[in-house]
Amino acid sequence: MIILGNLSLSENLWITRKRLSLTQEELANKTGLSRNGIAMMERGEYNPTIDFLNKLCHGLNLELKVEIVPYSEIYDNTEYRGEDVR
User: Fold this and answer.
1) Which pick of 23, 37, 44, 67 has the fewest CB atoms within 10 Å?
2) Which of 27, 26, 22 is CA-nearest to residue 58?
3) DSSP per residue over 4-36, as a string?
4) Where are the domains of the chain?
5) What share of the chain is helix, strand, coil (3-state, %, to 5)?
6) How many Å apart are CA 16 and CA 53, to the nearest integer?
7) Model confidence at 38: pLDDT above 80
């Protein structure tokens, strides 16, 4: 999946699927996931599991990489002090 700036995972999925000219049904068939699950994720109504993301990436011939970094490295002018800063 191509990560585009600070877009959400759901926005990136939608953009990637559109760039590949795939319908949700076609993506579901390639990944073994349900079309409904893909639709819910694209709408931001589903927090995917690592297994979901792994199947999604595998079906798109991509490697899943997970990186955990402090908020301050992601968002400008944000200090992480142990509380939720979103």
Assistant:
1) 67
2) 27
3) -TT--HHHHHHHHHHHTT--HHHHHHHHT--HH
4) 9-74
5) 50, 0, 50
6) 14
7) yes
